[in-house]
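Hi R.,

Here's the chain you asked about this morning:
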Amino acid sequence: MPDIIMPRLSDTMEDGVVSVWLKKVGDPIARGEIVAEIETDKALMELEAYDDGVLERIIAEAGVRVPIGEPIAVVGDGTTPVAAQSVPSTPAVSDLGSTTAVVETRRDEGVPRTQVVKASPLARKIARELDVDIDAVVGTGPGGRITKVDVQAAHSAGAVVTPAVPSGDVSVVAPSGDVSAVAPQEVPVSGDFEEVALTNIQRVSATRLTESKQQAPHFYVTIAIDVTELFAFRERINATLTAAGDGKVSVNDLLVKAVAVALAKNRAINVSFAGDKVLRHKGIHIGIAVATPVGLLVPVIRDADRLSVSEIATDSRDKATRARDRKLRAPEMSGGTFTISNLGMFGIEQFTAVINAPEAAILAVGAAADELRLDGDEVVVRKILRVTLSADHRAIDGAVAAQFLAQVKELLENPLRIVA
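And here is the predicted structure, written out as tokens:
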């Protein structure tokens, strides 16, 4: 019987979560038919059946995180009794988050010992609730990983309860397969609280953002831009588009175009650091950070320097909508060379953003606000927008970053140059 395995659905995917099964055990399926939805590190993806047949067994229930290449279901000819093929539990993950490897240091008769216990967070939680010694449980999951059912079976069999841990002993938790990246397992809290599992996207984002801050020496450059004329220019564009029955252009769309034009003039910003060299990208592909219910997604506007403002508006609006609906495909979120993060719609005036590796820079955009400025001897009210460039100092020098922001400022303060 052929297995349905967890496929690689993006270039950075290491595992996936079965979000929902669209077929149930006993259902006939056809090659190419959508049988499940898989949550990757970037989006919700559809999983197609590889073969014709009958879904005889579901190995990974909804909510389970499974490494790439591991089986998640079995397709047969329908002759195998379903009861004989059923699996009572999912082998890897729970509703509390990803599979973890726990490093425990205890003292037995004064002698410290360290061992690695592979168990899902739910299995460990149930072990604590049932007073089951997790060390005494035999795991039946992949690689000997302990599952919820393993803990329940051990409890039913009368497994030794968890011994009291003497004062001073330590329990720490690290991601599966990486016992060197140690972080506290028990977080001191007071009062009532609710445990909320990270989505796959949030989990991967947390890892990558941490790596970005740890590995890339960030520096920040901020500039104030008078966007009074830009707002008036946008009104004129939208009046024309509305008359033609087309969609409107946002300030962010104009900003994307301005950044793309500036990147085309200053390729030293459109780079990635690669150890002993810098990769200077030929294409200008701008990522737009979009907040979604499952975490931050970054759809990419490809070749933004070659697109008109209205084309950028259409593409950006479409991808942002589909990002929030979790309908983006992985290629639509890959290959970015520069990212823009805009929090102006929330009233945030200025902030710094973490670089979206392997890119070398990200632009944080705040809200435009009315400010008093001198125009000769006269005090006037102008709309001022502040943007902050976060740059990887390994790949970008301060003077280069300053020059780039000056170019962006020049374009936005003279908006006709954006479309010229």
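One quick note: Residues 205-419 form a domain with the Chloramphenicol Acetyltransferase fold (CATH 3.30.559.10).

Cheers,
M.
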